[in-house]
């Protein structure tokens, strides 16, 4: 019973955080059809920012750190779209070129972090210290804070996409880019906003996860690979699919770690992904907005 409770708590927490991180990748693909290979490196750069603002010298608390990091991440995402992605869209083979450009940008960020912060991994102090005991299972307050903040952020994003005019514009662009432009939606504005929102979500995930995982120059590739599997599992560009996929794979990971060890996590993930794609080649939810 205790093992089951551990799997449930861990699965819910992992699912919430993976959803938060993967939604940014899905949003960008859903609106602009750009697969951003730099998503993991951007996440790790934000994690270094969290370290710099806290343990790296400034010693700021969690709220102040978010107040600085999230707006900066949003601006970075908008500038990235306008300066790197938008000029490429005029190219005949822009989808392939943007993938290569984002991959190259990921290497630039990784080496920038390596030069600036060095090869030694950094650690970030927990948002909140202490722990509680739940049914014989010790749960850290950091885990509880991560879960609550992640779920609130995901819920807020869903409300934004379904209620806010700009959120509904993002859904419209994802479904029919040409039709959205005809009815007066500023498609380029939607592209820029989706990139900004994507980077901001990655930064929030970085702040929540940096106290749990080490911050290192190449540490963004493992989260990116997991986000990529989740996005494909749920259906490319489908926000609802990402929600389901993140929690399903979160529970799978928690069960695998508990039963056979963490090294088997990704092999089992890929087996589950292959089974799903054999049954539903487009993933769980088909296309964005379903």
UniProtKB/TrEMBL annotation:
Entry's localization field: Cell membrane
One Pfam short name: BPD_transp_2
Membrane topology: Multi-pass membrane protein
Protein's UniProt keywords contain Metal-binding: no
The organism's place on the tree of life at top rank: Bacteria
Keyword flag Lipid metabolism: no
Transmembrane regions listed in the UniProt entry: 6-27, 59-85, 97-117, 144-169, 190-215, 227-249, 256-279
Protein name according to UniProt: High-affinity branched-chain amino acid transport system permease protein LivH
Organism: Sulfitobacter dubius
């Amino acid at each position: 019973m205790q093992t089951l409770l551990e799997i449930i708590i861990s699965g819910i927490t992992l699912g919430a955080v993976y959803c938060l991180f993967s939604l940014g990748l899905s949003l960008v693909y859903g609106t602009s059809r750009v697969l951003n290979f730099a998503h993991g490196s951007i996440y790790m750069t934000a994690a270094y920012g969290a370290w710099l603002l806290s343990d790296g010298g400034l010693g700021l608390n969690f709220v102040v750190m978010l107040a600085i990091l999230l707006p900066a991440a949003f601006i970075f995402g908008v500038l990235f779209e306008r300066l790197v992605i938008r000029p490429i869209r005029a190219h005949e083979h822009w989808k392939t070129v943007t993938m290569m450009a984002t991959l190259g940008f990921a290497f630039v960020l990784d080496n920038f972090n390596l030069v600036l912060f060095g090869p030694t991994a950094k650690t970030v102090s927990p948002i909140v210290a202490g722990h509680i005991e739940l049914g014989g299972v010790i749960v850290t307050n950091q885990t509880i804070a991560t879960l609550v903040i992640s779920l609130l952020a995901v819920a807020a994003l869903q409300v934004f996409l379904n209620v806010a005019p700009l959120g509904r514009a993002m859904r419209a662009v994802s479904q029919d880019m040409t039709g959205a432009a005809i009815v007066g939606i500023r498609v380029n504005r939607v592209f820029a906003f989706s990139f900004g929102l994507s980077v901001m979500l990655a930064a929030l995930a970085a702040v929540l996860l940096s106290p749990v995982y080490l911050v290192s120059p190449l540490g963004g590739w493992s989260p990116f690979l997991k986000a990529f599997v989740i996005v494909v599992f749920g259906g490319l560009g489908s926000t609802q699919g990402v929600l389901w996929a993140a929690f399903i794979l979160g529970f799978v990971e928690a069960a695998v770690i508990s039963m056979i060890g963490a090294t088997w996590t990704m092999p089992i993930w890929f087996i589950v992904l292959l089974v799903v794609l054999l049954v539903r080649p487009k993933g769980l939810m088909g296309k964005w907005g379903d």
